[in-house]
């Protein structure tokens, strides 16, 4: 048993009774969060979900990281899925009191992951051009284009503080300690459970060279400086989607 399953007290809901389906390791994770008026998000995710607010404000996050050591339960790691980059655009929602994450887009530089995740997890994965320099000072670049649509992120980031675990009730805890995702197909809503130990966070600094992600948001959304956190590594476990 992985040590993650010895730490369950931080979960807002119990683990599913079934076995986990897949595991992967996330490295050099950057959390960047911007406040946004809740009205700006209406109509861009399923109406059966409720916007989750912190300090009476909705939040949109950009989260770039590296994925590695992906494997399915009972099987060895898959060479084809050994390592790739990912960039998530997300917000925070609840359903029947359960907090979770809703993704507007999930960009990767790995076509098999796009196909598999769209098929089995009904998530809006997209193939993008990506590059990363991942060391003490990281740089992450992503470019997605489809027809006339183009979204880019070019950011350099550096951890500033010693690692810490966020306290319940703080924004740091609220924005990172999320253990399920919500997605939909047609008028059907699905939930996918996730498990990992609590995040070890560091305060961080980010310098943006370009950011045109999520063009459906207000044009000035990215203008102010975000709240930025860094985490070196996390092993996560995923369960199959369940219709709710």
From TrEMBL:
UniProt xrefs under InterPro entries: ADC_dom_sf, DUF2071
Domain of life of the native organism: Bacteria
SUPFAM superfamilies: Acetoacetate decarboxylase-like
One matching Pfam family: DUF2071
Protein name, per record: DUF2071 domain-containing protein
């Amino acid at each position: 048993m992985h040590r993650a399953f010895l730490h369950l007290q931080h979960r807002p809901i119990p683990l599913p009774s079934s076995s986990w389906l897949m595991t992967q390791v996330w490295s050099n994770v950057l959390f960047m969060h911007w406040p946004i008026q809740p009205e700006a998000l209406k109509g861009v995710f399923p109406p059966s979900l409720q916007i989750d607010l912190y300090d009476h404000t909705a939040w949109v996050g950009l989260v770039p990281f590296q994925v590695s050591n992906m494997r399915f339960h009972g099987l060895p790691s898959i060479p084809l899925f050994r390592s790739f980059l990912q960039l998530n655009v997300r917000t925070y929602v609840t359903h029947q009191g359960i907090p979770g994450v809703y993704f507007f887009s999930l960009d990767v530089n790995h076509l098999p992951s796009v196909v598999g995740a769209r098929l089995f997890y009904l998530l809006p994965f997209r193939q993008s051009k990506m590059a990363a320099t991942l060391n003490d000072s990281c740089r992450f670049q992503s470019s997605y284009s489809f027809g006339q649509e183009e979204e880019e992120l070019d950011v350099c980031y550096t951890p500033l503080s010693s690692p810490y675990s966020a306290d319940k009730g703080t924004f740091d805890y609220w924005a990172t300690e999320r253990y399920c995702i919500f997605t939909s197909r047609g008028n059907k809503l699905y939930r996918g459970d996730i498990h990992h130990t609590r995040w070890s966070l560091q305060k961080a600094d980010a310098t943006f060279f370009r950011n045109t992600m999520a063009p459906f948001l207000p044009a000035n959304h990215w203008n102010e400086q975000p709240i930025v956190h860094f985490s070196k590594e996390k092993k996560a476990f995923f369960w199959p989607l369940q219709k709710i």
